[in-house]
Amino acid sequence: MQAEKVIQAFSSSSVEQSINDILEYVNIIKYFDNKLFLKNWDDSLLDKYSSIVKEFKPVIGRFVSTIKADTLSNTDEQVDKLYKDDFFETLEKYNVTRRITNEEFVSFLKKNPAALNYILYNKKTVDQFGLVIANMLEHDICYAEIVISHYFEDKSATLVRKTYMPDELVNSKLNNILRSYVDWENANPNYLELIAGLKKAGGHSVDVHIRYKAHLRVLDFWKHIKPEKHKGIKYGADIRFIKQDNIKEEQIEPGSYLRKISYSKEWITNNLDYPTLLNNFIYLFEYVDKYSCCQFLSKPNELGVIERRIGIHGNDEYRIGIGYLSKKVLSTLQMLAYKNELQNYKITIESLFRWFFEEYLYMEFGVKDFKYITPSSRSKMIEKIILLTSQLDAVIKQYRMFIDEGEINRGLFEFSSDINPIVDSASMIERKYIYANSTDLKRVLFDFFSDQSLLHYTESTGDKYDCFTGILADENVLISDFPSYCIDELEWLQNKRMIFTDKSGFIRCDWCLAKLLFILNENGCIAYSYCSAKEKIIIEELLNQKDVVSEQKLFTRHEQEYIDYMLNVHTFVNGPELRNRYVHGNCSLNTKIHQNDYLELLKLMTLIIIKINEEFCIKYPENIPEH
Questions:
Q1: Other beta carbons less than 10 A from residue 374's beta carbon
Q2: Gap between the terminal Cα atoms of the chain
Q3: Which of 164, 300, 401, 556 is 20 to 30 A off residue 107, Cα-Cα?
Q4: What does DSSP say about strands 257-264 and 235-242: parallel, antiparallel, or unpaired?
């Protein structure tokens, strides 16, 4: 290790140290402060080296005290690129920057403009030279991406150091930076897309003209991209209703996300009763899984390693990947094909909705006065959309009233102007969903199921498995079979009673618990009502340990996020804002966009119906109809 050689060669009386020697001392001190030592150091050697390292600080102090404004530029040029950030951190720590005036700092930055990239890691220096730095950032386009990244970019999945921006970078200066960047011919389209999508950043508002121009530049960029010259992952779907023996036939193109699915026309013709037509969304199109959790939203665990790590993403962005895009296309085309097929029988999707709320809930569960307003056959598409967005809110408000009052009071409903956010809708079911709560349990989920966990590899199995539980399911492995750097984590899992060893020393786990954790990892939650008696006992223990928490909501957290993404701009800035755009009248005039938006809203209402029906069936199981 280089550090050991430096320690051994150190002499406090040496006058031959360079700035890079000094910065090596700085880094070695960090290693010792964080107790990062070589394993072959015994106690005696460690004590010896610790004594030597204690002599580093006076030497560092004496050296940096010689750095003045007139030597700063020359010293910076001598610093190895590897130590650049350490250099400015050390200058701040030893108060060297306090001896430099604004004029001298401006002169230094003009000679060493790249230094600002590292200076921005140091808050005290940024605060001291706030106006100087703000002016530099405003007038030099080469710093624009640093500013954009600081305010807009989500760095939670990276190890990028935190940057600081001066208070003097006021709203007008920020917008000037963005305006110049949007006009710059070398602007990165990913950053342009961030600018187009954000309305606020760090308390600053972004001028709509700048955002719109960035949006136009992104569109222009993609116009000039020729697909045949750029390889990518194909995704899409081909949905048809045809004459065939099987109710459903599916083909997936190898190496792609292209799915061809055909459904039986005869199935539709022979099953035109409304309960079956609605159930087709569950059993034929699989809009939800067996726990009634939505299938066409984005799930964090479906993002690939590259999708999680590569690319530029906004702070308030709904993260989507190829998995979500392929599911979105599939579910939307299913809705379109189904809508067109039902038209052959003079049935509309929204007539199914009205039947559910006004007839089914009354006939099966005695719910009176639940109303759903459908458009007329003469309604234009944009009129259907506006009406449907209002019905999303109306349905949730009526359902909330039923939960609170035990009935729907039409007079009270029409009198009240209270708004019930769809995403925050209550549930009739206690402990509707269970979520991971403790950092320990989240750590267990990572160890058990992540392809990034070190536990998915042993020398004998190699890369055969993509997660730790895959190994446990198929192999007999000992703790000693794992690399030495995994032993501490395996022992931690043992102490947490997540794994144990049998009489032969093989690693085992409670598969009932593992199943629950798998569902929690896949869906982000556990639907408590679907659990067995044994599973509920396990959940009870996890609740008592505060490893999990329960929530009584109509929708899962992932579903809440998806609905908010589709309808609003409260949480995510990159959504279609379907409610906002159509209710406030700033929607597109493009009829093709109207058609697609209508299908997306139909999907949302379908999800709401499935969730409400699930609640009634769980709450009143004796009333569940045979069909």
A1: 17
A2: 72
A3: 164
A4: parallel
What is the pLDDT at residue 34? 87
Assigned token pair, 202 = 């760090």
At 474, list the tokens: 């198929």
Q: Of the residues 188, 223, 258, which one is the last residue of a structural domain?
A: 223
pLDDT along the chain (627 residues), means of 10: 80 78 91 84 88 90 90 91 92 92 92 92 95 94 91 71 92 94 94 83 82 93 71 80 94 80 96 97 97 94 71 78 92 97 97 98 95 94 95 95 93 85 89 96 95 88 90 93 92 95 94 96 95 96 96 96 91 87 86 95 98 96 66
Residue 254: domain span? 235-408+591-623
Backbone torsions φ then ψ of 280, nearest 5 degrees: -60, -30
Q: How many domains does the chain divide into?
A: 3
Q: At what angle do helices 171-183 and 208-223 cross, to 10 degrees?
A: 20
Between CA 43 and CA 555 the distance in angstroms is: 57
Beta bridge partners of 34: none
104 φ/ψ angles, rounded to the nearest 5 degrees: -70, -35
Using only C-alpha atoms, the chain has a radius of gyration, in whole angstroms, of 31
**CA 26/CA 84 separation, integer angstroms:** 12
